[in-house]
């Protein structure tokens, strides 16, 4: 009896989602996991301020300060940021605001990976240096590969 009841509940939830026209993308609200990898080459690291904006098919996030406790963006390191965001839809690109400030500002960015709450992951490769300011009005845009 219990098993049958559970099966009916499961069927109803799926049916309801279908009726409402929901896709997996539209259900993807929650924790977005962002990994930022710095190149493993001389002077690759930076102490500059960095913010990111994630662009999706539904909407864009606000600007997110990428600053964990301790020293971010050291040579060869991957920094991980977990942010709760509303559903963005299919991720198309990430915009980077780069202040090019503080000690040894120039930064060699390898790539950024974004994992949605439903596990769908996009890779945004760059493999290049940031050696000037990228303002929020004209940020560095890195498309999904
Ligand atoms: Ca640093
Ligand atoms: Ca920090």
From TrEMBL:
Record keywords, A-Z: Signal
Keyword Signal: yes
Top-level lineage group: Bacteria
Extent of the signal sequence: 1-27
Domain PLAT: 30-144
InterPro entries, A to Z: Inner_ear_hair_cell_LOXHD, PLAT/LH2_dom, PLAT/LH2_dom_sf
One Pfam family per UniProt: PLAT
Cross-referenced PROSITE patterns: PLAT
SUPFAM superfamilies for this protein: Lipase/lipooxygenase domain (PLAT/LH2 domain)
Descriptive protein name: PLAT domain-containing protein
Organism: Lentzea alba
